[in-house]
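Hi L.,

As promised, Tat pathway signal protein:
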Amino acid sequence: NSNANHWWKVDLGDIYPIDGVEINWEYAELYNYVIEVSIDNNNWIKVVDKSNNDSNEKNQMSGFSKENARYVRITVTGLKSGYWASMNECKVFYAK
């Protein structure tokens, strides 16, 4: 639904040095969100804060300083009324 605070999480199966996330949203609309990473699925580190996002691009890439993580979580903190918090694809990048 169009309420905020819906989240999506992925378990990468092992710990990797994560340094970027690319989201392909379902619609080219304004989505406010934060991206967090975790090693243990309990303690989270915020690596991207787009709570005041001004981009309505369907495809949004966020690079950040390398963080070791097994889990990646995206929480939608706000979106346009009538739109769902949904994405087509999410890519997680790690430093080699």
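The beta strands are 6-25, 31-38, 45-50, 59-79, 87-94.

Thanks again for sending the construct details.

K.
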